[in-house]
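sanity check this chain:
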Amino acid sequence: PLLSAENNGITVILDQCVVDNNCAYIAFQVKGYRPAAGVRPSFEDVMISVDGFQETDINWNFAYYDYEHKDEESDSEGDELTFIANVLLFDQDKSLIGQKMNITLKNIGTYVVDPSRPEQGLTFNQDVEGVWNFGWVLKGTDMHLDLTDLALPIGGTGSVLTSLHLSPISVRMQMTVPREPVSEDPMEDNAPYFYGLKYQDGTELSELGNGGGEGYESKDSEVYMQFWNLDRVIDLNQVSSILFVNPFGENELIEVRIN
C-alpha cells in the first residue's frame, strides 16, 4: 500500500495510483466495514483537490466499484471494499505529474430511500463516523502507446481514425468526421462514439469512458478530437482494437484494429 489512515476501526488504504499528464486513477481499499446486502456503500463527503489548480480546472468522481458486479449492488463477501477516484485535468497543455493530490473522506455508510418519504430520494445512512485524510505527490507513468499518421476507416461511417494516444488510464484520438448535417441542431454530428477496447485474447472492455470530451477542432474543420479518462487500468500490451458505437446504427459496435 502507498498510504493508509485509520479511524474508529475503519482502515482506508491508498492501494493504487496511476497518473498521466491529464488523468489520475486512484484506488482505495476500505477494511473493517461491510454494508448490509443489497445496498451500495459510500462516504458521506469526499473532497479532492490538486495543489496548483483551481477547483474549476479539474473534474473528479469517487465511487464504490465492484469489478465482478459492475453496475450492480454489492453481494460480495469479506470486509474489504474498493473505491475508485478518477481525476481529470481539463487543460491538456498542463500536467498533474509532480503536483500534490489531497483527498479527504468523511463518514462511511450507505445511501438509501426512506420508504416513509420516497419523494426525498436518497438519504445518507451513517454507519461509522470518521475522517480519513490523504496527501501525496503524483508520479507519472512512462507507459503509453502513440500511433500517428494513421488512416483507419471506422466501419462504413465515413470517419477515419488518424492518430491515437493510449495510456493505462486514458485515450486521446484524432479522426476526420464528415460535416454532413444530421439534424437542425448544430451541436449534433456523425462522430463514432468511443465505447471501449478489445484485448488480443478477445476480451472486450466495455463502457470504458469515464469523463472527458469530444468535438471538432474548429467550426470549419473536419478534424474531430476525443479525449476520455478510463474507469479502470488497462494492459497496453494486450490491446488489439478500439471499439466504437456506430452513430448510424442502433447500438452497433465497430471494431478498429490497431495491433
Observations:
- Residues 168 and 235 are 6 Å apart (CA to CA).
- Confidence is low (pLDDT under 50) at residues 67-77.
- The first strand starts at residue 3 and ends at 7.
- The two ends are 34 Å apart (CA to CA).
